[in-house]
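Hi all, posting the design record for the shared folder.

TITLE: backbone redesign
STEP: 1 of 1
STRUCTURE INPUT:
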């Protein structure tokens, strides 16, 4: 009986120990120059924290149901990521002027092309056609497109202040608009039109996970706490290994922007793994909720936080994208719209999204 109970327990030994060890590694390595062995240990803890975060996010999702489950993971990792951005900008001075823009745009490209593409690919490989709700996914993509243009495109074309920057009044408007759109999207997703964001019934027999009993409230709360610990460890350890990444990028003669892309890839690993696992269970809509929800949260929370932090931050705040990135953003929106409107996607759509992501990554390395 004890074995059966252990199998049903939502928090197994490794999922409890790994986040704590990863957080300990973060505390010991923060702000220090790490030798090669220490970097390897931190990287191992980072990988373990990613897997633990995915596990605990699934426990919480099983307890609260969709779309709340995907919302918890997307918001949690974004809040921690925003805190990291503000901290780095406070310490970095002028050299971090474009950090918020680069991080947010990387998150948009990785989520809207990488996570979406992988999810559609996995879903189509399993069922030939990946099925999802066009209403919910279309609304989410429209929100991503609007937030991206208001926050990342318009600063390039405004004329009151020279350079791709907002004036104080323009930044305040962008912050209020971003926060309002994010709040409106959450209300629509979780209350008014919740059914638009629920997985589509494909007519296949439910998986074993669907039959499993939901975890108790106590177990779900424990997993929520461990999820936050794991995400802090993921983002913090990604920052801890960033000097090593910077040195490797510099030695390879690559642009400095590649560092931001690599860190964004590491930070978004929990959402990526959770989305792929959901797609394998015929829950492509959950995968899209994670992808587009993360993109919306990244912009909707970062811009207001940066606007508030600009009260005490010194130096310029560059938000406007360059021509190459604006073209990639436009292509992402067009391809995304053509993907979500039918509510069905094949391997081709997944492949197209992944090629757009590959183009972004290639041009980051070779601008």
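Okay, here is what came back for every position:
SEQUENCE:
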């Amino acid at each position: 009986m004890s074995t059966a109970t252990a199998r049903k327990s939502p928090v197994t030994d490794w999922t409890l120990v790994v986040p704590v060890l990863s957080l300990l590694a973060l505390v010991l390595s923060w702000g220090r120059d790490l030798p090669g062995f220490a970097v390897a240990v931190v990287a191992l803890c980072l990988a373990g924290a990613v897997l633990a975060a995915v596990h605990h996010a699934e426990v919480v999702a099983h307890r609260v149901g969709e779309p709340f489950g995907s919302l918890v993971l997307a918001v949690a990792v974004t809040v921690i990521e925003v805190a990291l951005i503000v901290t780095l900008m406070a310490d970095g001075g002028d050299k971090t002027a474009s950090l918020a823009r680069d991080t947010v745009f990387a998150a948009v490209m990785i989520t809207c092309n990488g996570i979406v593409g992988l999810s559609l690919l996995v879903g189509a490989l399993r069922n030939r056609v990946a099925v999802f709700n066009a209403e919910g996914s279309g609304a989410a993509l429209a929100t991503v497109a609007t937030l991206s243009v208001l926050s990342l495109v318009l600063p390039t074309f405004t004329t009151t202040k020279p350079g791709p920057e907002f004036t104080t009044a323009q930044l305040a408007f962008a912050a209020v608009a971003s926060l309002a759109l994010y709040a409106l999207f959450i209300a629509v997703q979780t209350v008014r039109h919740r059914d638009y964001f629920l997985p589509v019934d494909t007519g296949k027999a439910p998986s074993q996970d669907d039959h499993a009993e939901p975890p108790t409230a106590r177990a779900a709360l424990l997993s929520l706490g461990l999820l936050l610990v794991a995400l802090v460890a993921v983002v913090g350890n990604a920052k801890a290994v960033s000097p090593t990444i910077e040195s490797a990028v510099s030695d390879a003669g690559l642009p400095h922007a590649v560092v931001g892309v690599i860190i964004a890839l590491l930070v978004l690993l929990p959402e990526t793994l959770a989305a792929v696992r959901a797609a394998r269970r015929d829950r492509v809509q959950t995968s899209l909720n994670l992808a587009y929800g993360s993109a919306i949260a990244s912009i909707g929370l970062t811009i207001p936080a940066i606007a508030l932090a600009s009260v005490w931050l010194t130096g310029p705040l560059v938000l406007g994208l360059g021509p190459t990135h604006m073209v990639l953003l436009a292509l992402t929106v067009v391809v995304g719209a053509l993907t979500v409107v039918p509510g069905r996607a094949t391997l081709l759509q997944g492949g197209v999204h992944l090629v757009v992501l590959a183009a972004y990554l290639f041009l980051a390395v070779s601008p």
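COMMENT: The mean pLDDT is 83.
Let me know if anyone wants the other runs.
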